[in-house]
Amino acid sequence: MKNRISVVLILLMMIVLSQNIFAQNSIKIIGKVSFFENDELAYGANIETYKNNQLVDKINADLKSGNFDFTTSNKIDKIVFSFSYCYSTILENINNLNGKKLDLNEIKIYAIPNTFTRYATKEAERKDRKESRQKFRKLKKGIIIKSGKRNYLMRLKKRNGEYAFYIDFKDFQNKKIVSLNYSQQRTKVKSKSF
């Protein structure tokens, strides 16, 4: 009987110790997801975390507030934010997360432009397509996002046959990346169609 009690006590101590170790290695990730074009919150946006291209966690932003708040014990190197009919926004090259909390503040997602446009003349079509290509090139160079105390650069890139906006975590941590006025840049990048 004494042996059984001691075995049970040892198992309980192991469970408590493993939970303490789990709590020490876990990190809380918080923030909100909104649309670039109009700053409206993206209620129910998908948030996925990855390590070496393997899915680690998957949650959805809150349906009432657009916020997300979750804790992960796994090391991650990428967070993907997605929403229907929008380019995914990917925060990549995450390493050395210092502390127990990662506050992403506000992550922007960019709607995929609607391409169902009819033109009155071929000249109008050529002009619109030329403007669309120029806007697309600007998106590839990057959009500077001002999010609270943090400014970051999103670049449109094509990887694995799909376009997405990529944010390098090093740039995301740097608070002095802005070279253009945010409001001026938003008016330059807004587009009707691609």
From TrEMBL:
Protein name: Uncharacterized protein
